[in-house]
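REVIEWER CHECKLIST
Item 1: Sequence provided? yes
Item 2: Single chain? yes
Item 3: Sequence as submitted:
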Amino acid sequence: MKFGMRVWGGLRAALVMFAVVGAVSLAAAIVSTPAAAQSASSIVVEGNRRVEADTIRSYFKPGPNGVLDAGRVDDGLKALIETGLFQDVQISRPGGKIVVTVVENPVIGRIAFEGNKKVKDEQLTTEIQSKPRGTLSRPMVQSDALRIAEIYRRSGRYDVHVTPEIIEQPNNRVDLIFTIQEGPKTGVKVIEFVGNVAFSSYRLKDVIKTHESNLLSFLGGNDVYDPDRVEADRDLIRRFYLKNGYADVQVVAALTEYDPERKGFLVTFKIEEGQQYRVGAVDFRSTIAGLDPNALRAFSRVSVGSLYNVEALEKSVEEMQIEASRRGFAFAVVHPTGDRNFDAHTVSVVFAVDEGPRVYIERINIRGNTRTRDYVIRREFDISEGDAYNRALVDRAERRLKNLDFFKSVKITTEPGSSSDRVVLIVDLEEKSTGDFSVSGGYSTTDGALAEVSISERNFLGRGLFAKASVTYGQFARGYALSFVEPYLLDYRVALGLDLYQRQQLANNFIAYGTKTLGFSPRLGFQLREDLSLQLRYSITRQEITLPQTLANCNNTIGGSQVGNNFLPFNPTPAFVQANGANGAVDPTGLGLFCFSDGEASLPVRKELSQGASITSAIGYSLNYNTLDNNKNPTEGLLVDFRQDFAGLGGNVSYLKSAIDAKYFTPLVSDIVGIVHLQGGILNKVGNTELRMLDHFQMGPNLVRGFAPNGIGPRDINPFGTQDAIGGTKYWGASLEMQMPFWFLPKEVGLKGAVYADAGGLYNYQGPTTWTATSELTTPQNSNCIRPTQTPPTAGTCTGLVFDDNKVVRTSVGVGLVWASPFGPLRFDYAIPLTKGQFDRVQQFRFGGGTSF
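Item 4: Structure as written out by the authors:
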């Protein structure tokens, strides 16, 4: 028995040894078979219908000895799968051959979108990667669905659902259908600020672009949640604090959270303000031989004692660096440094001028401009290929390109050039629509209802030209205007503007006459600095007065007398009228002597009518200084406009007219903004030419609120005429106003209240008349001008009565409601005059506004 067990054990060991040896021999035999040693050309391809067999074989790369081993076969398998052309790939080795069996992906016959109402098919088609007549790739289809959802999320629809569906068709074709459930827009329900002490949340909401949703949000779009906009808001908040002296500010985070109950986002900005600094000292240093740092002092916008302002610091660096370049130091670089004094809350600023690296611009490559011509972009650069690289000039060019408002985004970056001292500027642009078609409507207590249709293009023909045509039709005002601007005349930074216009002002409750004006005006604009501009202009206009027949008939002849070829007029006294009836005189000779018996227009108006159309040829200029923080809704800064016009270069009108208008905005306390408004003007005679009534200043609520249009100043007070306001040659005005928000209303409503006090005056009429009353006049009946009592009147009788009170200062106080509505800016004012002239006209309530849609 023991012997048998030993024999069986030995036999079992022998069998195991034989099996191992056999397996090794079989493996060696397999490896050495011809199949393993085949080349790629001997691979058998099965199942392919559209893809060529040689194309499939090309994915199998043999080794250096031309042999396909197991590893390279596996690499070829993976490469085929990654092409996305096949649903399945299998490799087998029957009879020692390599056989590749493929199942091709179907071809997309049609791509359709269902359920999309807010985004057009054309836009979605350009965004997805799957294309008709292309191969279906399921991973690509899923990627396309995610891309479509992302497009909707960018437009604020975060509840979007995109479901791709593949419908099989004959001949291995499929239709690809994307079913879209768009969902409502996802707005921003609440914006909160944490850590802000110096500025209220109400004020900071003015700084950012994101707004909270409200009932009128459908007219805008900034209430829709956009993560990119929120991130940009962080930088806007930071820049706002840095501008106001908070050098240590940090906007730590912008947290966003979706609230399912409110179906919107909650946005929270966390701020660490730090302390406010003022400028303790300003110093200038230079390491460049020959460059005196004090020569750059005049270009500094930073002064001792002022709030530390990073924007002013950056503009100073830019202007100083440009000035150094102009002086021949092309590689000069200005580095500002600040040394904080935490106890005194001051920053000592040092402008250090050093020699920068000698780097030149090799090329300027512009990308993304499909419509705008290259030269329109390049002319915004003060540097070109071959010039020394100057970061300040590059930053200025980027800012100018953004200000053109032709592009959604502008970004200028640098890339290494062909050598270490060369750089390539890359200008990446994304264009946007620059054409506008608008229908505007409005109403005001001055002009009544008004409508305007206009079409404009800011980038006409892609050449950077501006063109606009508009037609206005209203209750009391009508006309058209054509405008054209070439911003770079003869390749210089000089704007040439051409304006052709026709206006018709109809008689209304405030003036008894109408005017027709046809004008043409070329102008040249110069940007002297970022905050200072100059405009030179020439204008030629044809103007005439129109009067209703009832005010110009002058058909009563009783009371006049013929003296030679002249017919003497007669202005009857009330006693004469009572005794003889309302009789007047006529002027058949057209010499400017008029009757007033049945309510005729005032003498200056009638004289303008008798002289017919006038031609005014004038040259002028305007200087504009603007440091406002926001042109539409300013809270800080100064705006000054000074204008002068000289008429007399041809035509039959001559004068010298000067006017100045200045507004100063400053934040007071708790979001209250103070406004100081000063204005004044003077009209001077030139030579012996008489001033026309139409050239005089006409004032009303534009000078002192609470008065009617044309309600202030000299007036023809003949009791038998229309008693028209005839204007003055001198005026001045001053206004103090405080605007404050309604804190109990959401910020996005855009409603503010105003309280104000106005003062001003309009004096010194110098137009056609024969007599001027003074402030001693109490009633027209006491004037010696309304005489004589006999018939006919004696020669030399006055024909007009102008009351011009130069001793009265018109004043008023009032309240206003200012609404930055989605329908356009609206303003309501109620003012009470405190002092007024004897014949001034009052209008306590005033309303004006309008919009484009």
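Item 5: Key structural point noted by reviewer: The domain at 360-431 is CATH 3.10.20.310 (Ubiquitin-like (UB roll)).
Item 6: Recommendation: ____
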